[in-house]
Amino acid sequence: MDSPHDDGFASEMAELPLETRYPPFALRQYAGFWLPERTLARGLPAARDRFAPRPDDVLLASFPKSGTTWLKALAFATARRAAHPPSAHDHPLRQRNPHDCVPFLGIGFALDKDVELEALPSPRVLATHLPFSLLPTGRSRVVYVCRDPKDVLVSCWLFTRKVSESVGVDAESFSLREAMELFCAGRCMYGPQWLHVAEYWEASRRAAGEVLFLRYEEMLRDPVGSLRTMAEFMGCAFSPEEEERGVARAIVELCSLDKLKKVEANRKGRTAAGIKADAYFRKGVAGDWSSHMTPEMGKMVDEAVEDGLQGSGFSFTDSTPANPEFCPDA
Ligand code: PAP
């Protein structure tokens, strides 16, 4: 099938494999991935046809629940630090949810917000959950974050139960076991997760200057080191003078889960997309899956993912840092 287009794609979409068991959205399998129907019908074609990339754009990419909100906050605060020093009491991240500071490419276009995306000052920071193979062409730098799939699954399941009501779907009875079975079959939003990860991993190996591959767990271990690497990759490394003033540390502090949780806009109300803002901030740790899943369930997820990753060169069981710069002793 050709790339989706606004005109008439609805009828073509009806012929794609359908998955309705993972709330809240109906998913269709396209180019090897399970995408929400709206993304497929509107967001993807609009992003491909109408996105006018700029050479200094930074695109933040992730599988859902892998650290997107944190990455958005860090990248936004870093790119905008001249206009908004992290210490400023009126910093946008002290007033708005990170999702309202960094728009999702597909969603922005799907909601006909082209003008807003065009009006963003350079360097623009944008985000996407699209797999690498479906990104619009002509993009520039991509920062990808991945996370232990067991924590992704649990975070996603809890989020789904909490926010599905905003789109009129009751997901209260959706069990973790059901979520796990669908996740292991790759039948979840933007799944299979392992294929999503493997594509970006491969791209980061092929073109290191174009795709930076980060791991959420490494970011937790060394947030300042991770931020330095990211800033350098984004083309706005911290100067020695900024280092002396502790700017990188101040950004990490501003974007910490504890600080973001206390922001009123993140405690109450909803994001521009209508989602309860507090749903994006929970524990933010590595390994919380074991509070919800049995070891046997964890093993099933690990096996499904490692199986899917075979031949990709990437493994979640390999604790080697994705980027040597992250290792303080390297
Ligand atoms: P999204 O893809 O829907 O935007 P995303 O931000 O990737 O969601 O995932 C939310 C997870 O990131 C939550 O993990 P948990 O459920 O395991 O707790 C959330 O707590 C965590 N998170 C959000 N903000 C931060 C932050 N500032 N630092 C660390 N983790 C964070």
TrEMBL record:
Keywords: Transferase. InterPro entries: P-loop_NTPase (IPR027417), Sulfotransferase_dom (IPR000863). GO terms for molecular function: sulfotransferase activity. Its EC number is 2.8.2.-. Transmembrane segments: none annotated. Belongs to the sulfotransferase 1 family. This is Sulfotransferase. It comes from Triticum urartu.
